[in-house]
Design a protein that fits this description.
The protein is about 40% helix and about 20% strand. The chain is an alpha/beta fold. Bound molecules: adenosine-5'-diphosphate, aspartic acid (ASP) and magnesium ion.
């Protein structure tokens, strides 16, 4: 490749209506004057939720759900297309293509209604339809602006394993397919517009990368193309010291490291899919988080070694999307292989473990998993431990969904004494009870479990206690000049 490649991903709100799609296309077109640009798009905001809800209702026997889906999605996408593409043959062709894709998703829903079931494989096909729509619309807008925009379905580019709903990429096969499909177009000055979120197995069966997975799509493609950088365009100014919906005076961080951003994403910062940084860590490709509503702002740069900050704790994050599982009883002490069996059972259903703790009396093992994994994990544990419960070695397996994980993250926390003490006393002063505590050996985070009702209070209190609103940020500065230097 002669020109450096920039992969840029636009999230749901950044392609949420006609005006946003136009603005995303402008950003891509402008960037393409200096470099090769690959665009990755999410579904329009709300569309993936609508698709998943329709699939669920259909599987529960609601045959009208498919029709309601068709009406809602056609209205939303037609409105955008009519505002974006002038009347004529191009608009007509695009409208028919979009209608056919929506009809296809609705037919899958109808199939679910008739069968009365929704397999993870069918759900992936339905849930991933939204991205196919936006990719075609955004490519058409780019063409209308005089650029050579071409839509691609990532089912033809990203090869994954067969884990529906949370598939993982196979790097070598992805690299081969992506380069074969995109490099000739890039060399000819074209702009590929690729669907985020979706992929396919080696056999071509569609998969998804998990909710919020378009961020991951962007870095998978960035790594496959040896991109110079990846930009995640979203609806906030970058990675903030906390979720601004919880802490309104949260501040944008200029730089964070891959490890810090990874920990934040893992512990619930929705701004990044938890797997986003995996594909780029080895090659060191920088990832930027920037605000598509305020493109003149520099955003946050995520690299291997972010500029050190005097602040020990850089950000506080939290998620309610977890469940606490406790396995308790005298057998926890007596049976030597109990921990191995518990975690073999969780592994067999691929449950994502967020935290593990064993009580000091040693008669219970508690761990926190993602809420979506709770039902199948509980079932697997009950099956695996059935005999022990029968013989009263174990008293019970319980699941508590009324919890939240809160984490304080920062690389400088490593080796700085007293951080845990400050965390605990802050929470104590607020009267917030910690149910379990964990600190990774990297010491880049301290995470703890609280009652769900105490989550927001805990985040606000820690943000205040560590003075995170005082972090010096370039955010308010008009960074037009910096941006130009940065992307050159
Ligand atoms: P997109 O649709 O662009 O992918 P998301 O909604 O998935 O956007 O992610 C952006 C949102 O992440 C923000 O609007 C914000 O509310 C939330 N968020 C949570 N924690 C953070 C954080 N630490 N920094 C920035 N945003 C955060
Ligand atoms: N549209 C998908 C979702 O809502 C993927 C994404 O937006 O990143 O989860
Ligand atoms: Mg997202």
């Amino acid at each position: 490749m002669s020109r450096p490649i920039q992969v840029m991903k636009f999230g749901g709100t950044s392609v949420g209506d006609a005006a946003r799609i136009r603005s995303a296309a402008n950003i891509a077109a402008e960037a393409s004057s200096l470099r090769s640009v690959v665009v990755v798009v999410s579904a329009m905001s709300g569309v993936t939720n609508t698709l998943i809800a329709a699939a669920g209702k259909s599987a529960a026997g609601d045959e009208a759900a498919a029709e309601a889906l068709t009406t809602a999605l056609k209205a939303k996408h037609r409105e955008a297309i009519e505002a974006l593409i002038p009347k004529g043959e191009n608009r007509q062709r695009l409208l028919s293509e979009i209608d056919a894709l929506i009809d296809r998703a609705a037919n899958y829903c109808l199939g679910c209604a008739l069968l009365g079931e929704l397999s993870p494989r069918a759900l992936d096909v339905i849930a991933g339809s939204g991205e196919r729509l936006t990719a075609r619309i955004a490519a058409a807008v780019l063409r209308d602006m005089g650029c050579h925009g071409v839509a691609f379905d990532a089912t033809d580019l990203i090869v994954t394993d067969e884990v529906h709903g949370g598939a993982r990429p196979i790097a070598a096969a992805t690299r081969e397919k992506t380069r074969a499909a995109l490099v000739p177009l890039l060399e000819a000055g074209g702009i590929p517009v690729v669907t985020g979120y979706i992929a396919a197995t080696a056999k071509g069966i569609p998969t998804t990368l998990g909710r919020g997975g378009s961020d991951f799509s962007a870095t998978i493609l960035g790594a496959a193309l040896d991109a110079q950088e990846v930009i995640i365009w979203t609806d906030v100014n970058g990675v903030l010291t906390a979720d601004p919906r919880i802490v309104p005076d949260a501040v944008t961080l200029d730089e964070v490291s891959y490890s810090e951003a990874g920990e934040l994403a893992f512990f619930g910062a929705k701004v990044l899919h938890p797997m986003t940084l995996r594909p780029v860590v080895e090659s060191g490709i920088p990832v930027w988080i920037r605000n598509s509503f305020e493109p003149h702002k520099a955003g946050t740069k995520i690299t291997q070694t972010a500029r050190p900050s005097p602040q020990c704790v850089k950000a506080v994050t939290a998620t309610r999307d977890v469940a606490l599982i406790a396995v308790a009883g005298p057998g926890i002490i007596g049976v030597p292989d109990i921990a191995a069996r518990i975690f073999a059972a969780t592994a067999s259903v691929r449950a994502n473990i967020v935290m593990i703790s064993q009580s000091s009396s040693q008669d219970s093992i508690c761990f926190v998993i993602q809420a979506g994994d709770a039902v199948r994990t509980e079932k697997a544990l009950r099956e695996a431990l059935h005999e022990d419960v029968r013989h009263h070695d174990l008293d019970h397996v319980t699941v508590n969904r009324n919890v939240a994980v809160v984490a304080a993250v920062g690389e400088n926390m490593a080796g700085t004494p007293g951080i845990a003490g400050r965390v605990f006393s802050t929470l104590g002063n607020e009267g917030i009870n910690m149910i379990a505590i964990a600190q990774g050996s990297s010491e880049y985070n301290i995470s703890f479990l609280v009652e769900a009702t105490g989550m927001e209070k805990a985040v606000k209190a820690l943000h205040r206690a560590f003075g995170l609103s005082q972090i010096d940020s370039d955010e308010e500065v008009d960074t037009g000049a910096r941006v130009t230097t940065k992307i050159n």
